């Protein structure tokens, strides 16, 4: 009889531990889901607009660019199977549809940064609009670990703006 009580006492802490782990997981997942809801909602709206106004057939990537204005970009292919970028201003403005063949790719922009700046780490890359022209914004840490960013022209990859924190 006493060995059964001891056995029950041993299983009780295991159950409590499992319940605590499950609760921690559920709380973490809930915080993550609530935090990402605005991004998912923006992505769904941008994809919907890209399909409606730019004939986007298959979506590939979604980006958010924040500067003087916020832009959402959806990349993918159109009904003619051409690679496109659809840049949508968060508030007002027109929808810009860029054919990928008319500019540099994400990988070309990254290669240019890696070759010219030799960063410690690239943090983010996103297409957007700056001074009424399409750009790639690359945010990175330089060799000293300082935050830097560079805007490259979508058309030719030339530097539009650069901030180097030395």
TrEMBL record:
The chain crosses the membrane at residues 12-35. This is Cell wall elongation regulator TseB-like domain-containing protein. The lineage of its organism: Bacteria, Bacillati, Bacillota, Bacilli, Lactobacillales. Pfam families: TseB. Keywords: Membrane, Transmembrane, Transmembrane helix. It comes from Paucilactobacillus suebicus DSM 5007 = KCTC 3549. It comes from the Bacteria. Residues 45-88 form the Cell wall elongation regulator TseB-like domain.
């Amino acid at each position: 009889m006493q060995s059964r009580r001891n056995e029950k006492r041993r299983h009780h802490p295991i159950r409590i531990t499992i319940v605590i782990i499950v609760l921690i997981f559920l709380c973490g997942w809930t915080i993550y889901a609530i935090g990402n809801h605005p991004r998912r909602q923006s992505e769904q709206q941008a994809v919907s607009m890209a399909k409606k106004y730019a004939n986007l057939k298959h979506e590939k990537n979604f980006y958010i660019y924040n500067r003087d204005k916020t832009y959402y970009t959806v990349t993918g292919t159109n009904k003619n199977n051409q690679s496109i970028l659809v840049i949508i201003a968060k508030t007002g403005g027109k929808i810009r549809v860029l054919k990928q063949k008319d500019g540099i790719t994400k990988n070309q922009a990254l290669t240019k940064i890696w070759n010219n700046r030799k960063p410690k780490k690239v943090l983010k890359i996103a297409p957007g609009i700056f001074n009424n022209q399409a750009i790639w914004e690359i945010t990175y840490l330089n060799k000293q670990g300082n935050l830097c960013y560079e805007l490259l022209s979508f058309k030719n990859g030339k530097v539009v703006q650069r901030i180097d924190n030395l």
